[in-house]
Amino acid sequence: MPMPIRTWLKGSASALYVAFHALLRNTPDRCRKDEEMESKHILVVGAGSAGKRHAGNLISLGCRISFVDPRADRLTEVQEKMGIQGIYTSLEDAWRMDGRIDGVAITSPPAFHVEQSIAALEKSIPVLLEKPVCPDEAGAQKLAKVQRDSGVPLLLTYTWRWWAPLRRVKELLERRAVGQIRHVKFVMSAHLADWHPWENYWDFFMASKTLGGGALLDESHWIDLMLWFFGKPERVIASIGKISELKIETDDNVDMLVFYKDGMRVTLHLDLYGRPHEKYIRFVGEQGTISWTVDPNRIRIGREMTETWETQDFECERNDMFLDADREFLNVLNGGSVQTCTIEDGLKVLSVIEAARESSASGCAVVL
Ligand SMILES: NC(=O)c1ccc[n+]([C@@H]2O[C@H](COP(=O)([O-])OP(=O)(O)OC[C@H]3O[C@@H](n4cnc5c(N)ncnc54)[C@H](O)[C@@H]3O)[C@@H](O)[C@H]2O)c1
């Protein structure tokens, strides 16, 4: 039976993208170096905290940057502080600029991620997308389909995947350094007022349901890490709520109990009111415990009854994980493939989020 024309067009778009980059990979070395050394022009969509961080890194890696943000003050700030090529108050205006855009980094609030990513992919421009993919699973499915059909790369930046100490933890788990893991505890507790000291926390997108704020969505890093370490769980019980005096309409407390097929249990606590801030994971196995903390920047392994630990300290700084993600994006722009975090990974996180929401609403366990 002949293939419908739309399917053929989508398939051929993907094939064309792949063929073009295969051609680049096969060009003689001298030409390829010129292509790789040519400064890439990246359009950063959202001139807030994450946008400025990626832009600064990409500039340090030799890129040229233009920004989109509806807020004039944000655009003035980046124009004054960074060597910026162009500033635009809307994505539509930015598309009309003269000159090529090699990549788009989407660092706006999550409510805009799907529509903005699709706009770039439909122009065959690779995307770096900040987490979470978007506020709900349906949006993520829609974007994943467009990405698959177009074949244009999308790198999702659940940035802790690039954090050297957590990569080390993953290796330790893979070689069963403390035997079969039976229980894992994730804790992330950080008062929202401390996140962006330059603005009122209630004006920040984290306070807004419509924009995609809240602990569950924004701190879905920890759900992503659970999936990265252990794959898909079997069942989830969750309680998601707003229990502090923070002036926000979003959730500020998440507790989850997650069951895996092999009997392993995971507890996950996220809150937006805790001080001092705390981020840690404890993996309890049959032959000991692996403990990872952000502060101190450390992994410890304990195998004794008493507090006797083998300790490994790390020197890396928070920006290093963003910088490594930006390096991977540049490699993608030069024809490499997305290695560390894909849209499919983001979709899996959203399916756990939806299960947690359902469980919290019904009070029952939800099977994944
Ligand atoms: N990977 C990480 O560790 C990490 C860290 C921080 C933020 N993030 C993610 O980055 C995104 C932005 O967070 P942030 O802390 O930079 O927020 P922010 O509020 O500092 O910045 C968001 C910016 O987007 C702008 N904006 C609003 N609507 C827009 C639109 N329609 N188009 C373009 N820009 C628009 C806002 O004016 C603001 O300047 C979120 O998805 C967040 O989860 C990820």
The CATH superfamily of the largest domain is identified as NAD(P)-binding Rossmann-like Domain
Report the CATH C-level class of the largest domain.
Alpha Beta
| Secondary-structure element string | HHEHEHEHEHEHEHEHHEEEEEEEHHE
The CATH architecture term of the largest domain is 3-Layer(aba) Sandwich
The helix-and-strand class reads alpha/beta
The total number of structural domains is: 2
The main sheet orders its strands as: 14-13-12-11-7-10-9-8-15
Q: What portion of residues belong to β-strands? A: 15-25%
Give the biggest beta sheet.
Answer: 9 strands, mixed
Bound molecules: nicotinamide-adenine-dinucleotide
Low-confidence sequence ranges: 1-16, 18-36
Number of helices: 12
Structure, explained:
The chain has 368 residues and is α/β, with parallel strands linked by helices. It has 2 domains: 177 residues, 3-Layer(aba) Sandwich (Rossmann fold), CATH 3.40.50.720; 167 residues, 2-Layer Sandwich (Dihydrodipicolinate Reductase, domain 2). It is built from 12 helices and 15 strands. It has a 9-stranded mixed sheet with strand order 14-13-12-11-7-10-9-8-15. The chain has a 6-stranded parallel sheet with strand order 3-2-1-4-5-6, sandwiched between helices. Helix 7 links the parallel strand 5 and strand 6. Helix 3 crosses helix 11, helix 6 packs parallel to helix 7 and helix 10 crosses helix 12. It is globular and about 65 Å long. It starts with a helix and ends with a strand. The N terminus is likely disordered. It binds nicotinamide-adenine-dinucleotide (NAD).
